[in-house]
Amino acid sequence: MTRVLAPREVPLGGLRAMSVQRSLPQRGMPSIGAWCFVDRFGPEDSLMRVDPHPHIGLQTVTWPLLGEIRHRDGLGSDVVLRPGQLNLMTSGAGIAHSEYATGAVPSPADGVQLWVALPDHARHRAPAFETHTELPRVALPSTAGGAVATVMLGELAGALSPATVHTPIVGAQIDLAAGTSTELPLNPSWEHGILLLSGDVSLSADGSPLPGPPTSGILFLGEGISAVTAASEAGATMMLIGGEPFGEDLVMWWNFVGRSHEEIVAAHHDWTARTGRFAEVPGHTSRIPAPGLPTARLTARRRAI
């Protein structure tokens, strides 16, 4: 099964919100493997100012394409992230962080932020943060100018990322030179998504054309596909995400990924009441307040497509 997941515009960052294009989750599609959230910010001139906010039950994956992002969190991490580098924050039972552009005025920025849902055995662990300035790159079999994959998470074409993962997963940036065709190897027992980040691409599987992923959106590929051929006339940059279908129901609300309504209510209380569950982020005097909880009971998002 294939399906195009078109993005929707969402304000991000509280009172000083910037606009992002969100293509996951969607109604009837809570995740692709363990990937449960995909935001594209940019390309545009912007001034990112996302004040401290909390997370539970997930890993944040920050991947800038243009510009620099300063990450600070309740563990004391203070890192400036640049294109081609990876920030991976594991919230576990609870963590707060902020993300700011390094400049003082709007400047060119572009990137992707994703979440990975933590499985039950890892979601109550202590929070952690890691940054990777060097990631494995592997040349893919291709025509003409060549194709290179930078592996952010998991493994692709024999290249293994050093980033910590808790489920069978893959995340990689694929760069195609102009006039290039390449084959992306996929695990046929997994599901995958392809994001076109820039340029042009035509995709096919088993000799049949696939719908092109929209700008900032995702082409979803269900189980049973072992390879996708990608060809570009002018050159392209894509992101491949995928993994073993996630077998646990997810209750997602605001910045929290849990398993029940009660877990979300408890996290909301702990953030609002400053119980100490979410350590303060050094260098900040403001934080993003939690929105009011919905009046209806929160339930798990289920796959319907």
Structure commentary:
The chain has 305 residues and is mainly beta. The chain has one helix and 25 strands. It folds into two domains: 2-134 and 249-273, Jelly Rolls; 137-243, Sandwich (Jelly Rolls). The chain has one helix at 261-273; strands at residues 2-5, 8-12, 18-24, 35-46, 49-55, 58-66, 69-73, 78-81, 86-90, 95-101, 107-117, 128-132, 137-140, 147-156, 159-160, 169-176, 180-185, 191-199, 202-205, 208-210, 218-221, 227-232, 236-243, 251-253, 256-258. Strands 1, 13, 14, 15, 16, 18, 21 and 23 form an eight-stranded antiparallel beta sheet that branches. Strands 2-3-4-11-6-9-12 form a seven-stranded antiparallel beta sheet, with no helix packed on it. β14 (147-156) and β15 (159-160) form a beta hairpin. It comes from Demequina lignilytica. InterPro entries: Pirin (IPR012093), Pirin_C_dom (IPR008778), Pirin_N_dom (IPR003829), RmlC-like_jellyroll (IPR014710), RmlC_Cupin_sf (IPR011051). GO terms for molecular function: metal ion binding. Keywords: Iron, Metal-binding.
Descriptive key words:
305 residues; globular; Jelly Rolls; 4% helix; 2 domains; eight-stranded antiparallel beta sheet
Could you give the topology of this structure?
Elements lengths: L1 E4 L2 E5 L5 E7 L10 E12 L2 E7 L2 E9 L2 E5 L4 E4 L4 E5 L4 E7 L5 E11 L10 E5 L4 E4 L6 E10 L2 E2 L8 E8 L3 E6 L5 E9 L2 E4 L2 E3 L7 E4 L5 E6 L3 E8 L7 E3 L2 E3 L2 H13 L32
Antiparallel strand pairs: 1-21, 2-3, 3-4, 4-11, 5-10, 6-9, 6-11, 7-8, 7-10, 9-12, 13-14, 14-15, 14-16, 16-23, 17-22, 18-21, 18-23, 19-20, 19-22, 24-25
